[in-house]
């Protein structure tokens, strides 16, 4: 396996995504990285750049419910790999990889509710480009290890660590945690997850380091110019 390509410009990522989208058949792009790394924001931006033929599906839709986490004694570890329905997520990605059904419905995680809502995201058969976003896309242990070969590429988001922690604390506060609990969660459970996710970094096709650039594209209604020609980026064995 070759070393991941490092990309530091959002415009280059947009070109790369459009190049993937020019391939025949269904294209699956994975976007991963530790908590607070900007995965969701980048995924939304890339879907917006590719256009109406693209959909975004999040791994967070496979969080176990609050009630089940409480039963298992895992509520204070929510976000760790064993607090997800990994096998269910792998099954969904497999269905997305081979679009033989008229429509595949994916769940959506609602942070305001701290619960997943089933059947929220329709991915029709003619949707050509699907971005799948989540923490554990590059984990090699079963069942997660099946995911890697289903993706055309996987990008790993790696902002500066102080930026990541600030983003994470701000997100916890935005959803109701006080400052001290936000910091404790970010530096405790979230940090342990981040350290585990970092061990999967070398499996990525692309390392993304674009701190601050996405702020310019949030809320855009027009994609970037396509003046650069499409160059193929085949995954190396």
Helices, strands, pairings?
Layout: E1 5-7, H1 10-21, E2 27-32, H2 39-50, E3 54-58, H3 66-72, H4 86-97, E4 103-110, E5 115-124, E6 129-133, E7 153-157, H5 161-174, H6 179-187, H7 189-198, E8 206-208
Parallel strand pairs: 1-8, 2-6, 2-7, 3-6, 7-8
Antiparallel strand pairs: 4-5
Q: Would you mind describing this structure in some detail?
A:
The chain has 237 residues and is of the alpha/beta class. Helices cover 32% and strands 19% of the residues. It has 7 helices and 8 strands; from the N terminus they run E-H-E-H-E-H-H-E-E-E-E-H-H-H-E. It has helices spanning 10-21, 39-50, 66-72, 86-97, 161-174, 179-187, 189-198; strands at 5-7, 27-32, 54-58, 103-110, 115-124, 129-133, 153-157, 206-208. The strands form 2 sheets. A 6-stranded parallel beta sheet has the order 1-8-7-2-6-3, with helices on both faces. The protein has a two-stranded antiparallel ribbon with strand order 4-5. Strand 4 and strand 5 (115-124) form a beta hairpin. The chain is globular and about 50 Å long.
Q: Which properties best describe this structure?
A:
237 residues, two-stranded antiparallel sheet, globular
Largest sheet, described in full?
A: 6 strands, parallel
Helical coverage, percent range: 25-40%
Q: Would you tell me the overall average pLDDT?
A: 90
Q: From the helix content, strand content and strand pairing, which structural class follows?
A: alpha/beta
Strand content: 15-25%
Spatial extent as radius of gyration: 17 Å
Order of helices and strands: EHEHEHHEEEEHHHE
The order of strands across the largest sheet is 1-8-7-2-6-3
Shape: globular
Regions with little confidence, pLDDT below 50 for 5+ residues = 221-234
Distance between the termini: 5 Å
The number of helical runs is: 7
User: What is the total tally of β strands?
Assistant: 8
